[in-house]
């Protein structure tokens, strides 16, 4: 039921102004509660999204470290290895990853490429 219909019903039935005020106050409180619930849901969604991004960043950092360690201990990499590293590094950086992956990238770029 919309506001206009409610006001029409109240006026048509002759509800006293105190009752009218109480009904309107009750409706405003209900609307405020819905808004509060929606904000809470938005906050929960934002918290979940931050957790997902943080988890993904952590997984990418682990994979970058693993690749870095493998390639540097071997002393060389293939072009495909380098492509895989870059494909993981870009999203890690875009998710706000710190400088450790940049240091890994610098090390990896120094390695010779063998095919």
SSE layout:
Layout: H1 3-13, H2 17-74, H3 79-94, H4 100-109
Helix pairs in contact: 2-3, 2-4, 3-4
**Average pLDDT metric:** 83
Number of domains: 1
Tell me roughly what share of residues is in helical segments.
Answer: over 70%
Instruction: Profile the largest sheet.
Output: none
Q: Roughly how many Å apart are the termini?
A: 71 Å
| Count of separate DSSP helical elements | 4
What do these coordinates show?
The chain is mainly α and 115 residues long. It has one domain. It is 83% helix and 0% strand. It has helices at residues 3-13, 17-74, 79-94, 100-109. The longest helix is centred in the middle third of the chain and has 58 residues, at 17-74. The protein is rod-shaped and about 85 Å long. The relative contact order is 0.10.
Describe the structure concisely.
The chain is 83% helix and 0% strand.
Keywords:
4 helices; 0% strand; 115 residues; rod-shaped; mainly alpha
